[in-house]
Write a structure and sequence with these properties.
- By secondary structure, the protein is mostly helical.
- It has 21 helices and 11 strands.
- β8, α7 and β9 form a beta-alpha-beta unit.
- The chain binds glutamic acid.
- The site of glutamic acid (GLU) has 7 residues, from loops.
Length: 493
């Protein structure tokens, strides 16, 4: 039997980073086994439906490098791939359960259910339920005469369909990550399968779809573990074999607790995949990082691209415990993948970002050198523009922190350097000579190297740190360097 897995997000908002990890683990598992990765949109909750969410999900998966084998835009044989388009099917299957005696129509109004609950509470039941006991005294197709049920259905009376949850049964299943999970049905309501608006609940739709889409492994977040016993009961009720379950560990915030939207925001962690896209992260870095958020290959290797991850990934190496989201580690990965990217591949991206920031990037050779000079220093592609802005524009102001290093004698040092640099013309205006000139000033003034180098750096770049100064000055060119020095001497003296 070939492996089929699904990523089944609800289109209720932008794709959360935790959702992206769930998708990734499904994708890696599918590829590892030569199986199929299905995208199913679980859009039955119309009150929470967000128009652009599906497009955001698909865009995010594509950006991250996960090819969807079957989904709304690339249908296979078991579609449609949006639950809202499968409504008729859920009705048929609900009917099947009613016919085989495992579900029933319930006509009770909300008030009637409240009355039942109040009554039971008053008689000492702390958590009253619509269950195997109480269903016998409620208005449903198990208690009403057959012809009245038919009359009500024909008249269009409101109803829900409920699952006949067996009394005091232990539901057991094996989860590939958590081991044996067992659950007592006595804590369960008779689950609603079809709502009064005709929509299926998550439980019914999820089980019907996983079965009819021939899903072999359900890999999803831990927050769905409590739903799994209900799903098992449904598989039993249908007489279907359940897929293998694997519930992934939670993603934790560095300060403890689940990484909620609010927590992530307060800790400066982007929470939606789209923020990583617009934040110019490297998709390979995010993928590599997310793969390790709850899994490891079992040795101390850390860098693996998608292809290698597909080869290495197995569910038995997924941990049970929560995995802490360490943003510094993500930046470490990002830096690594930036270093791995060739200057040629970086160039169009840096050019676009610089132009977006309103800079003129001059000619291609110029920009190429800028990237070469900064390649070992940046950890995100937009830092080429941030750190390298002085290559495109003379400093408008000088970094405050850097100015603390501008001392009383700094202007004199810069002036002395300017005189040496004026003497370099044509090809002589080159990094080696620019360095020698600075060394000459250092020797003449009998000061330390930094005493001259730092103010020259501040005057020409506006910053107290940055790429190798002398090749940077060479690239800027003599006229530009002199003009920046003059302007700095005027403004800083
Ligand atoms: N629609 C659910 C979600 O939004 C799917 C849960 C599952 O994978 O069964 O995550």
């Amino acid at each position: 039997m070939s492996v089929r897995v699904r990523f089944a997000p609800s289109p209720t908002g932008f794709l959360h980073i935790g959702g992206l990890r769930t998708a990734l683990y499904n994708y890696l598992f599918a590829r590892h086994h030569g199986g199929t990765f299905v995208l199913r949109i679980e859009d039955t909750d119309q009150s929470r439906y967000v128009e652009d969410a599906e497009a955001d999900i698909i865009r995010s998966l594509e950006w991250a490098g996960m090819t969807i084998d079957e989904g709304p835009n690339t249908p296979g044989e078991v579609g449609p791939y949006r639950q809202s388009e499968r409504k008729a099917m859920y009705h048929e299957y609900a009917k099947q359960l009613i016919e085989n005696g495992n579900a029933y129509y319930a006509f009770d109004s909300t008030e009637e259910i409240d009355v039942m609950r109040e009554r039971l509470k008053a008689s000492g039941n702390p958590s009253p339920k619509y269950d195997s006991i109480t269903r016998q005294s409620m208005k449903n197709s198990l208690t009403l005469p057959k012809d009245e049920v038919e009359r009500r259905l024909a008249a269009g009376d409101e109803y829900v369909v409920r699952l006949k949850v067996p009394r005091r049964e232990t539901v057991k299943f094996e989860d590939l990550i958590r081991g044996i999970v067992s659950f007592d049905t006595s804590g369960l309501d008779d689950q609603v399968l079809l709502k009064s608006d005709g929509m299926p609940t998550y439980h019914l739709a999820n089980v019907v779809d996983d079965h009819t889409m021939k899903i072999t492994h359900v890999i999803r977040g831990e927050e769905w573990l409590s739903s799994a016993p209900k799903h098992m009961l449904l598989y039993q009720a249908f007489g279907w074999e359940a897929p293998t379950m694997a519930h992934l560990p939670l993603i934790m915030s560095p300060s403890g607790g689940k990484l909620s939207k609010r927590k992530a925001e307060s800790e400066g962690i982007p929470v939606n995949t789209k923020d990583y896209i617009s934040g110019n992260y490297e998709p390979e870095a995010l993928i590599n990082f997310l793969a390790y958020l709850g899994w490891s290959p079992g040795d101390d290797s850390e860098i693996h691209n998608m292809k290698e991850l597909c080869e290495l990934f197995t569910l038995d190496r997924v941990s049970k415990g929560g995995a802490v989201f360490n943003h510094k580690k993500l930046m470490w990965y990002n830096e690594h993948y930036i270093r791995e990217t060739s200057v040629e591949d970086l160039q169009p991206r840096v050019k676009a970002l610089a132009e977006q920031a309103g800079f003129d990037t001059k000619d291609d050779a110029y920009l190429k050198t800028v990237i070469e000079l900064l390649h070992e220093r940046v950890s995100k592609v937009d830092e080429f523009v941030e750190m390298g802005s002085f290559f495109f524009e003379a400093p408008k102001e000088y970094d405050e922190k850097a100015l603390k290093k501008w001392k009383d004698d700094s202007a004199a040092m810069v002036k002395a350097y300017q005189e040496k640099v004026e003497a370099l013309s044509g090809d002589d205006f080159a990094a080696v000579n620019l360095k020698a000139a600075l060394e000459a000033v250092v020797a003449e003034q009998e000061v330390g190297f930094g005493k001259v180098m730092m103010p020259v750096r501040i005057a020409t770049t506006g910053q107290g740190f940055g790429p190798d100064l002398f090749p940077a000055l060479e690239l800027l060119g003599k006229d530009e360097v002199i003009s920046r020095i003059e302007s700095a001497l005027e403004r800083l003296s």
